[in-house]
Amino acid sequence: MRRSTAAAVGTLFGAALIVGVRLSVSTPVVTAAPTDVDLAGSGVSADPSPSKSGSKKEATKKPSAKPTDSDAGEAGGGTGLTDGTFKGKGVVNPYGTVQVSIKIADGKITAAEATYPTTGNSATINPGAILKLKAETLEAQSAEIDAVSGATFTSKSYVESLQAALDAAGA
Amino acid sequence: MGTVVSIELADPLPGETLTKLVEDTCAWLHEVDARFSTYKDDSEVCRFRRGELLLSECSPDMRHVLNACADLWRDTDGYFDANAGGLLDPSGYVKGWSVEVASARLAAAGSANHCVNAGGDIRMRGRNADGNPWRVGIRHPWQADKLSWVLALSDGAVATSGSYERGDHVINPRTGKPAHGLRSVTVVGPDLSLADAYATAALAMGESGITWLAKLGPEGYESAVVTDDGRAFSSAGLPAAV
């Protein structure tokens, strides 16, 4: 039951909208499943809070726990999917919090989207956030150091270099 | 080829042991030179590129170097190119790699505190003789006796690629001409062979190297850059000495 949901929504997440989804169960699966369903790294739990749905009524069949939050809308189209907009649990991953939501109308998944973080260390999944080197003033300082890193010096320039002075001092 | 190597061992080990460690390091670097020097006609690299050796007949080190150069060509979008100029020359990788291996051998032989500097490419471990992290200055790109940054690190590598020593020796593989735009690129990270190649690639890219370098941050490679017109940039995680 849970696996079917994952397969359907997983394919949808790959940017191809599925017009019709046929599931093997008749109960509204999106209201069931107490554990997270893995969806390309983010978790979608069947913990729906439908913001838009038809008439809200208690489902007669509810396979498991989460009694207070689950409001089943109309089950449409005979596919077993309940109409409404369902948000997955926000999942924290190294880039921030990702939340997936899907919209079901007439028993079919008609839309899916994911929110993703746009700040911080999220450049990998948000191309708009470009990592940058920060500009600063070029310093010319002297300091106590153990070694110098510079462009590869030849034997000739080594002799006059800071590194030579350091090596001589350490001898 | 004339690269000078400075080796500093800060371990509390007997003098004989330290001497042996230095000798072994020199022996390794000579072995690298004999195998990879493009100035020695009988080196393995010269024999390979003349077709006298098949790849399958090459030494494990040669095959490793060639594989690494292929990976770097891909990872730097072609700007690190061991075949730029038409003839295979993996020297840009070999330089940093030889010191990375030298440091690994020293560590395996019992030196936990050392600093090996080969022509400006440095690999260090542990602490200096004062018990502090190694302090590395980045040579100012115009004033040879000044530093533009001072870094402090225990374990890691610092590599600098610049146009102020050997002139415009870094070629932009896209244009076939000397690269311009950046005068000095320093990369700091865990592996000297990569730090060195990244610094060279960024220099070859010119100004767009500044943005490319920033992407290395998540992989653990920090950078400090000076442009031809004197602007300076650094990454947020550059281990600057306080």
Describe this structure in words.
The complex is a heterodimer of chains A (171) and B (242). Chain A is an alpha+beta fold. Chain A has a domain of 114 residues. Chain A is built from 3 helices and 8 strands. The N terminus of chain A is likely disordered. Chain B has one domain: ApbE-like domains (T-fold), CATH 3.10.520.10. In chain B, helix 4 packs antiparallel against helix 5 and helix 5 packs antiparallel against helix 6. The chains are: A alpha+beta (171), B alpha+beta (242). Chains A and B meet through strand 7, strand 8, helix 2 and helix 3 of A and strand 3, strand 4, strand 5, strand 6 and helix 6 of B.
What's the gist of this structure?
With 171 residues, chain A is α+β, with helices and mostly antiparallel strands. Chain A has helices at 2-13, 155-159, 162-170, and strands at 36-39, 42-45, 84-87, 91-93, 96-105, 108-115, 134-136, 147-149. Chain A has a domain at 2-115.
Helix and strand topology:
The complex is a heterodimer of chains A (171) and B (242).
Chain A lengths: L1 H12 L22 E4 L2 E4 L38 E4 L3 E3 L2 E10 L2 E8 L18 E3 L10 E3 L5 H5 L2 H9 L1
Antiparallel strand pairs in A: 1-2, 3-5, 4-5, 5-6
Chain B lengths: L4 E5 L5 H22 L7 H6 L10 H16 L15 H18 L5 E5 L2 E5 L8 E6 L7 E7 L2 E7 L19 E8 L2 H14 L2 H7 L7 E6 L4 E3 L8
Task: Pick out the low-confidence regions of chain B.
Answer: none
> Termini of chain A, distance in Å?
75 Å
**Shape designation of chain B:** globular
Q: What is the percentage of strand-forming residues of chain A?
A: 15-25%
Task: Please give a handful of descriptors for the protein shown.
heterodimer, A: 171 residues, alpha+beta, four-stranded antiparallel β-sheet, 15% helix, 23% strand, B: 242 residues, T-fold, two-stranded antiparallel ribbon, 6 helices, 9 strands, 21% strand
